[in-house]
Design brief:
alpha/beta; three-stranded mixed β-sheet; binds iron/sulfur cluster; 336 residues
Length: 336
């Protein structure tokens, strides 16, 4: 049995993307200026494999843009360059991200031939008005149709969503999450919309016609969505953009709810809401033992141990333990 799962990320920005998504300056988001050569892909994979245990489950992920939108010869060259790792068994799968309107039966046959296992679509929203205002250039129908074809052909399906796009509301974000579940996604990524330099959104923001979500609102909105995905068994691969250089030093960030620990803050908020029922003003008991599912102890303790501090207002001692019998946000409390 393989131990841990590893994804070796290869960023393939689309250098001449014909689309006009208002939020996108893709090269800045991906943190890479140009598409890597085949040799660079191979050396990157080799480099990563040196650090991955032999029994790790490994996949190579072509991210950063619209993989099936680049010329077919280039797709082929990238996929061919990693076939030897698949055939030798060192790497078990290939995943890639692309747009819903660049999925056809022919392209799926082609990807299958090259052992692609997972396809992630930038769905962003399942509301037509939001997609239109975001300049996506496709509608909800394309997301539904591409999802159906991907599932039917036996690939694992990922549907990425954004919150806080122009025209988006809490209800629409929630609806999008429910639709992602209904369409049978195996995994998702949730990105709060950021205003990045040299994008149309930057213009809208500077003109005053677009306001990004404040950090607190973005956390609340994602905190409503996450339990739905967890209950439905949709794996959440990422919450919040990867902190590329331009975001970390804020040279490419104009405005918006960017925090390196955004995902951690969301999980902390969910547990805070759960624990708020256990806190009574002016009552202080001796001990509370909180049992959570495996992997949930730290999120339950909270970002900067905030939830523990909140419980310490009502209990002299707070103990967190994990149990393999619990899953998701299930928990037990014992109080003395
Ligand atoms: S987000 Fe939109 S504009 Fe940016 S690379 Fe993808 S399809 Fe092109």
């Amino acid at each position: 049995m393989k131990s841990r799962h590893y994804t070796i990320p290869v960023f393939v920005p689309e250098e001449a993307c014909p689309n006009q998504c208002v939020f996108c300056n893709q090269r800045r988001i991906a943190g890479a200026e140009c598409a890597p050569s085949v040799e660079e892909v191979i050396s990157k994979v080799d480099e990563h494999l040196l650090t991955i245990p032999a029994d790790g489950e490994v996949e190579i992920g072509f991210f950063g843009g619209n993989f099936t939108g680049i010329p077919i010869k280039e797709q082929q060259a990238y996929l061919e360059s990693v076939q030897s790792y698949i055939l030798s068994g060192r790497v078990q799968g290939i995943r890639l991200s692309t747009r819903p309107d660049y999925i056809t039966k022919e392209i799926l046959d082609f990807l299958e031939k090259y052992h692609v296992t997972s396809i992630e679509l930038g769905a962003q929203s399942l509301d037509d008005e939001v997609l239109k205002l975001a300049g996506r250039g496709h509608s909800v129908t394309e997301v539904q149709e591409a999802s159906r074809m991907i599932k039917q052909q036996g690939f694992s399906l990922g549907l990425q969503m954004m919150i806080g796009l122009p025209g988006d509301t809490a209800e629409k974000s929630l609806f999008t999450a429910k639709e992602i579940i209904r369409l049978g996604a195996d995994c998702t990524r949730i990105y709060p919309t950021l205003v990045i330099k040299n994008t149309e959104l930057e213009q809208l923001y500077l003109e005053g016609t677009y306001q990004p979500l404040p950090l607190e609102d973005a956390i609340q909105r994602v905190a409503e969505i996450v339990p739905l995905f967890i209950d439905a068994g949709v794996k959440i691969l990422r919450i919040g953009l990867h902190p590329s250089e331009g975001l970390l030093d804020r040279t490419s960030l104009v405005a918006g709810p960017f925090e390196v620990a955004f995902g951690e803050m969301v999980f902390s908020e969910i547990w805070k809401q759960i624990f708020s029922f256990l806190v009574y003003p002016n009552v202080r008991r001796n001990l509370i033992t909180v049992t959570t599912a495996n992997g949930m102890r730290n999120p339950a303790i909270g970002y900067k141990a905030m939830n523990k501090a909140m419980l310490l207002e009502s209990f002299r001692k707070v103990v967190f333990i994990e149990s393999p019998d619990l899953k998701g946000f299930e928990y037990h409390v014992d109080t003395v």
